[in-house]
Design brief:
Length: 211
């Protein structure tokens, strides 16, 4: 079942889709997280990426922690988003180590203590696995509304031949929408992966990755 976005504003879509993902119970969440790892962990995009950014789940988001642990086991370098104290609209990516102590940010999402030496510019990441509120099979993405990811990726608009990082959205199947209304600053995703599969479907067979 796919939700039709027709006639709905971004605000209304956010409310409906956040509600849908929050309604998933803890066993459904655990199963979705396991299936998500199954969808990605053997894929060349994941296997060949060395610098991978993920997130810690919030507000019913699909849980990428099994993938995060898999990446650490394989010796990859793992990054989490870190909100800047100033300007507050900026977000950077900072590497974390297994077992590192994390602290809640102003939204209650755990993040590492700021350390400039451990941050990597977004354009130098291999793979960015992004949280989202809604997606469409054409690469459209709807976020929480803060514009944090869009701003971090604005360099893509200026250099639209940039191949790094590969942008992949992670979501529950219930976050799929037929077609999202796009804004001028929206950066398209190369693919979205859910517990049920890849969108567009052909990406599941893709093997080339720039690094
Ligand atoms: N897991 C995760 N981490 C992330 C993001 C995300 O979407 N998911 N972000 C992606 O941008 C950034 C944080 N952005 C966020 C934006 C809004 C809210 C949020 O819960 N807003 C509440 C209002 C809370 C408040 O103002 O105190 C709400 O809208 O209900 C959370 C995170 C960085 N880290
Ligand atoms: N490149 C940018 N430069 C400046 N402002 C931006 C940029 N991208 C987005 N914004 C601002 O961020 C706000 C939120 O954008 P939008 O509703 O698209 O967020 P989102 O994609 O849902 O959130 P996120 O990117 O954090 O997941 C908008 O009001 C927009 O003005």
């Amino acid at each position: 079942m796919t939700l039709s976005a027709q006639g709905l504003s971004r605000r209304e879509l956010r409310r409906l889709l956040r509600q849908a993902r929050r309604q998933l119970g803890s066993s459904a969440q655990r199963q979705a997280a396991r299936k998500l790892r199954g969808q990605l962990s053997h894929h060349p995009l994941f296997r060949r990426a060395r610098h991978i950014a993920l997130y810690l789940p919030n507000d019913g988001e699909i849980d990428p922690r099994p993938l995060l642990e898999e990446a650490q086991r394989r010796g990859k370098i793992v990054y989490l988003p870190l909100l800047n104290a100033w300007p507050r609209t900026r977000m950077v990516f900072q590497r974390i180590e297994p077992g590192e102590k994390l602290y809640p940010n102003r939204f209650g999402i755990a993040e590492p203590r700021p350390s400039r030496a451990r941050q990597r510019p977004t354009w130098a990441l291999s793979l960015l696995l992004m949280p989202l509120v809604g997606f469409d099979p054409q690469g459209g993405r709807l976020g929480m509304g803060g514009g944090f990811y869009d701003r971090s990726l604005a360099f893509r608009q200026r250099r639209n031949n940039a191949t790094r990082p590969v942008l992949i959205g992670l979501a529950h199947e219930c976050q799929k929408v037929d077609q999202l209304p796009l804004e001028r600053w929206d950066v398209p995703l190369q693919a979205t992966v859910t517990d049920a599969g890849w969108y567009p479907e052909a990406q599941s067979r893709l093997s080339a990755v720039p690094d």
